[in-house]
Here is the input.
Amino acid sequence: MCLAIPGKLIEITDENGLKMGIVDVNGIRTRACLEYVPDIVPGQYTIVHAGFALKVIDEQEAAESLKLWQELIESGALDPEEGEPLPDDL
Here is the structure.
């Protein structure tokens, strides 16, 4: 299972003509293609899925989403190492 997760855009770069960025996702920095959100600027939040920033969201929406992710992890619904449901939850 692969789900979108919010992150804060830290830096914008150009890689081979593509608008790319470094996104901080809950303390972990990852690269994401920014072509779907051309007007995003550093400091804004975005939803990232499969290496692509899909839309710009506000800080409150990002915080609410991250809180729900944390609740899922703490409840055991997701294995944080794999990002997949645990076998007894299938």
Notes: Helices lie at 59-75. The beta strands are 5-15, 18-25, 28-33, 45-49, 52-57, 78-79, 84-85. Confidence is low (pLDDT under 50) at residues 86-90.
